[in-house]
Amino acid sequence: HSPSWQVIREDGSFMTSHEHPSTVAMKTGKPVLDVTLGVFNPRKKNHVWVIVNAVPLFRHGETAPYLVCVTLHDITEHKQVADELRQSEERYRMLTETAPDGIITANGQGCIVSWNHGAEKIYGFKAEEIIGQDCVLLMPEDQREQHAKIFAMLIKAGKPLTSDLPAEGIGRRKDGALFPVEQTFNFHWANNEPFFTIIVRDISRRKEIEKSLHVSEERLRLILENSPIGICIFDKNGVMIQANSFCEKCFGRSMDELTRQGLPMFLHPDDCEKTTQTLLTLVNNHEMKGEIVV
């Protein structure tokens, strides 16, 4: 054989001529079946992949084969597709394993079949603990019946479905603690079987911040309403967007009348230009406070 036509195994290691199925079959007198080999074609600069079967043939009354019948089945295209699929699956595995969000897949019976590291961090279950378990373990007890109904409805409809926007819900950790989540889902079919994939994000911290912000805003509102002086808030265009009750008394106008009015309405004509210029200076200099007289 020409040395340029190198033969390799599936793992990439080289095969010598003594190891070739035809040689082995001739030496041993036994068939060598279903061996996958890659033969390098120097003209095309690539490997042609084949499945080799080598069957020894015997003359009547002889124990040593006189020749070997070899068949080659070209699987190059099939192997390329299989390699691409394997690479795609590896990229998907790396993506799901490194994602901070939980990525969970359940089959048509509601049993979890896929569980990434993000899901482990969020819910507290290790993959070996949760795979094969019912996905209802991840939700509050009072929501499980409704979930089962929705899942059954999707299976009956038989159509793929993906949520357009994330939806907020409640999750349940391994220790039974409930926590807020943001989730998107995908219902799909594979090999005529239904699967439900959900991407979950723990939004506990966001909810804490929102709650703190709400408390802060409520505190500011109470200070504003109970202040013994008039407090007005104008936008960058000089339009009043908020005022407290003292301003209603001071200007003799209702809150609806006060808001959405321009600053000049509250100024004496003689002071309008000077005061407006003062405010513009404060805005342009990004100063947080200043003083004007109305």
Mind sketching the topology for me?
Blueprint: E1 7-8, H1 21-28, E2 32-41, E3 46-57, E4 67-74, H2 76-98, E5 102-107, E6 112-115, H3 117-123, H4 127-130, H5 141-157, E7 161-162, E8 167-172, E9 178-190, E10 193-202, H6 204-226, E11 232-234, E12 240-243, H7 245-251, H8 255-258, H9 269-284
Antiparallel strand pairs: 1-2, 2-3, 3-4, 5-6, 5-10, 7-9, 8-9, 9-10, 11-12
Outline the structure in words.
The protein has 294 residues and is of the alpha+beta class. The protein has helices at residues 21-28, 76-98, 117-123, 127-130, 141-157, 204-226, 245-251, 255-258, 269-284, and strands at residues 7-8, 32-41, 46-57, 67-74, 102-107, 112-115, 161-162, 167-172, 178-190, 193-202, 232-234, 240-243. The chain has nine helices and twelve strands. Strands 5, 6, 7, 8, 9 and 10 form a six-stranded antiparallel beta sheet that branches. The longest helix has 23 residues, at 76-98.
Task: Write a compact overview of the structure shown.
With 294 residues, this protein is of the alpha+beta class. 37% of the residues lie in helices and 27% in strands.
Radius of gyration (Å)? 37 Å
Q: Biggest β-sheet: count, sense, barrel?
A: 6 strands, antiparallel
Q: Give the N-to-C terminal Cα separation.
A: 102 Å
Spans of at least 5 consecutive residues whose pLDDT stays below 50 are none
